[in-house]
Structure formats: structure tokens, C-alpha cells
Amino acid sequence: MEVESKAMTESNMEEVETKPSSQESLPKPQAMYRCKKCRRIVAIEENIVPHEPGKGEECFAWKKRSGNYAEQVQCSSIFVEPMKWMQTIHDGTVEEKLLCLGCNARLGYFNWAGMQCSCGAWVNPAFQLHKSRLDECKSEPNPNQATV
């Protein structure tokens, strides 16, 4: 009797180890960024270029400081990689506004030499999209769709 129960528990443990957990198999929801005016998709989470948060106002020029060094400033923009819809980057200019392809609304700014984020960090080259001009949408992954 003991041998049978021991064999059954070993086989049950093997089944538990071989089954992938349901949380691991489901991909996490992906963020999409849309133009607030026309709802056109301008970037997805994979296009975002991460950066280390800077030291806040200590990083800015003396004239731009307000004196609140204790506050940790949240980034007011996202930085993305260059994309096909950014028509002005293909014209050969070094810096220019980024306009929505659908409605021509100003979404941000780019500078090949780089620019400073609101958190104080420098990003080179910089393709900055202002969060106030974008809607962030979380898309739930379709469990029936096969991922490659």
C-alpha cells in the first residue's frame, strides 16, 4: 500500500512539474499609444526607448530650476525609435516637430543630437512624444491567437 501511494505521489509531482503554469503562458498586456485627436496608433510598447531617470531639477540649467529638488519628477514624455510615419526625419533635418500622419496634430519633437527629458536624463538621439498628446491603451492579448 505504501509503495502504491509513493508511486502515485511521484507521478503526480511529475505531472505538476511538466505542466506550464497558466500565468507563464499568457503574454502580458501590451501598451499602445494613440493620437488623442484622431486615435491613430503612433507607437507600441516595443517602440519605446527606455532611459534611466535623471536627478530631476539638479540636471537643468540654473534658469530652468524652481528650487524643489526633493521631488522626483515623472517623465512627461516617452522616447521612441524612429518610425516610418515620422515624415520629417526623412527630409534630412536635424531637429523638427513630429506631426500625426492622420490629423497633422503636433505630437512631439525630434533631435538627432539628443534632448533632455523632464526627469533630467539626456536621450540621444531623441524622438520625443508628449504623453499629454497621446492616449495610452492597454491591449489584452488574445489567448486564441498563436504567438510566434
- Order of H and E elements: HHEEEEEEEEE
Principal-axes geometry comes out as globular
Supply Rg. 24 Å
Strand order of the largest sheet: 3-8-5-4
Mean of residue pLDDT? Answer: 75
Helix content: 10-25%
Low-confidence stretches: 3-23
Secondary-structure class: alpha+beta
The percent range for strand residues is 25-35%
Helix count from the secondary structure assignment: 2
Q: Total number of β-strand segments? A: 9
First-residue to last-residue Cα separation = 47 Å
Largest sheet, strands/sense/barrel: 4 strands, antiparallel
Task: Please provide a brief summary of the model.
This protein is of the alpha+beta class. It has helices at 2-18, 22-25; strands spanning 30-35, 41-44, 77-79, 95-99, 106-111, 115-116, 122-123, 126-130, 134-139.
Q: How would you describe what is shown here?
A:
The chain has 148 residues and is of the alpha+beta class. Helix content is 14%, strand content 26%. The protein has two helices and nine strands, in the order ααβββββββββ. The chain has a four-stranded antiparallel sheet, with no helix packed on it. Strands 2-1-9 form a three-stranded antiparallel sheet, with no helix packed on it. Strands 6-7 form a two-stranded antiparallel sheet. The radius of gyration is 24 Å and the shape is globular. The relative contact order is 0.22. Residues 3-23 have low confidence and may be disordered.
